[in-house]
Amino acid sequence: MSGERLLNFAIRYGFLILLIGMVLFFSFAANGFASPRSAVFVLQSVAITGILALGVTCTLVVDGFDLSIGAVATSALMLSAYSMVILEQSAFTAIVLCLLMGAFVGLVNGILIVKFRVPDLLATLGMMFLLIGLQRIPTQGNSIATGMSLSADSVAEGVFSPAFLWLGRHRFDLVIERLVPVPVVIFLVIALAIWAFLSLTRHGRLMYAIGSNERAAALVGTPVSRYKIAAYMISGVTASIGGILLAARLGRGDIASGTNLLLDSVAAALIGFAVLGAARPNAFGTVVGALFVGILLQGMTMMNAPYYTQDFVKGAVLVVALVFTFYLSSRRGAGGKV
Amino acid sequence: MLRRELMKLACATGLAFGTGGLALAQDAPAPFDNPQDVTIALVRYLSTGDFFQAYLSGVEEQAKALGVELRVLDSRQDAALQADMVDQAIALGVDGIIIQHGLTESMKAAAQRAVDADIDVVAFDVDVENDSIPQIEQSDYLLGKLALEQAIKDNGDSFTAGYVYVPGIAPLDRRDVAWEEVKKANPGITEAATFGTLDNPIANSVANQARSVMQANPNINVVFAPYDEFAKGVKIAVDEAGLNQDIDIYSADVSTADISAMREPDSAWVATVATNPAVVGRVSVRALALLMAGENVGEQVVVPPTLITQDFLNENDIKNMDDLSAKMPQFANADVATAEWIPVPGK
């Protein structure tokens, strides 16, 4: 009997205990780790992947998957740079364009999956390649920066507007001056919003219902297609927000495939399954998952660990988390997602 | 000097009539006396990114100036496909091939097949282990060396350094040789931390790492980041930490975006060393043309790098790569693999 209670305890709190243990370890082992600034770095380094991960969580909830988020983010990065530097538009226009682009990509993904019955992985994989190519067409594969030569002896005169850069670079005072960067605040706000949406509203619960049994949900009158499309649109919009913040931090339109953004955010969402023994996608778990990876990487960098050990550890964490989710939860009898 | 101007004029006229350098054809050796019958192929391994884009534009410019036809075969980092593409070029009956990057193991045999088919071949930044194939190189070793010499000039021979490095990437490995050498020669230089990642977008991932490194090692005053994406990342971290007065960044490579980053007020990025990728592209074509005309270009054709300091950029109000080429002639044109009969593209 006590064995079972121990198991339940391990499933529920194992991951959080691991997280606290890791923080304690690095506080002693890594010089300068235990400080408010250091904590903020962790948050900042996971803010962008965290935002993407929250979007992918929504698609996981309806039993879907979105492989295009990394490409949406880098497309938003290029689009914001293009509209400000080459078209010389305001920050507001750039942001609106990016959000619309994200929503539109999500809509197309959703329609491909719901109406044309393309499997989710394949539809979003196609979209990923399409976007990686598309974002390079306007500049013939070049990165965008002020002063770049355009055709016919003209030079790109536009600049990243200060209001836009503020999004990536400004820091709010919190006890210490200039402590909390804007992306961290946006990350936390989105996390709260998605958590509230998924666990407190009727819409969120219907989305979980679709995820666990689509047919049953449809039979009781849920507009399944609409909710699925909505999930992909949320994912597209959050990914474009991630891209906007990335552009604001970099201050230029960098050519990038976004593959690492995709992998890191999917890892965060999957690790999230294991948090509190939820065994299903959830916003709180995703945030903890992202933090977990962020703290690990920050601590290891401070201890001078080379990059390949970091990939190794990231992979190990993911595997352990998946074992938590699928094996331990199935033994508990409550059953996981499957 | 006058002669060069005349040649440019002649070349420009030739281009204007769409016959590309025909005006010069009479004194060009075979096969360039009939350039329209000459086809060369560029077989690429790497193509994504500003450097490779600029390299390609250099190849295109020089091919156009010579009046030859250029075929671009792009394997997009597929080593096996790149080798197949060399065979494809042989089948197409091209007269010359430029192999741009690739892996020694996969390209060695393919390059030999091209040589056996009586095709002239040059290789850029890949060693195909073949005596009849000249190597075009932008000297990565010198790139690192010049940047570090500037660091020592600015900071004296003892400082605490952060070093950004990812092993296993050929140009970075060659730049690393310079770093190891300089460290050995100057015991006053301490390497407080080595970090680096190629996670995409690189600048963002490196910025995250650099933040942690600077937090853990507040005594770092020089960062050697011998790749511009690394330097960008470090600069973001330095700005975020408000340390831009305390840390100097030395890097390699340059682009328009890099120039604006170096010229930001109080920028920590004080110097970079670079070869102009477009020039490297032109040199590749010129070396191939010389080889096809039966001239000896030697085993190695090295395009020398140029030191670009923040002060120089500010003094000359340089805003982009074109300004840089205009103000820095040694950057705009390398006096390498030239001949009277080869027109130099440009304004």
Short descriptors:
heterodimer; A: 338 residues; mainly alpha; two-stranded antiparallel sheet; globular; B: 347 residues; Rossmann fold; six-stranded parallel sheet; 17% strand
Question: Mind explaining what this structure looks like?
Answer:
The complex is a heterodimer of chains A (338) and B (347). By secondary structure, chain A is mostly helical. Helices cover 72% and strands 3% of the residues of chain A. Chain A has helices at residues 2-29, 36-61, 69-86, 91-114, 120-134, 162-169, 182-200, 202-212, 214-219, 224-250, 259-274, 283-302, 307-332, and strands at residues 171-174, 176-181. In chain A, strands 1-2 form a two-stranded antiparallel ribbon. In chain A, helix 2 (36-61) packs antiparallel against helix 10 (224-250), helix 2 packs antiparallel against helix 12 and helix 3 (69-86) runs antiparallel to helix 4. Chain B has 347 residues and is an alpha/beta fold. Chain B has two domains: 2-138 and 276-304, Rossmann fold (3-Layer(aba) Sandwich), CATH 3.40.50.2300; 140-274, Rossmann fold, CATH 3.40.50.2300. Helix content of chain B is 46%, strand content 17%. Chain B has a six-stranded parallel sheet, sandwiched between helices. In chain B, strands 7-6-8-9-10-12 form a six-stranded mixed sheet, sandwiched between helices. Chain B is elongated and about 60 Å long. The relative contact order of chain B is 0.14.
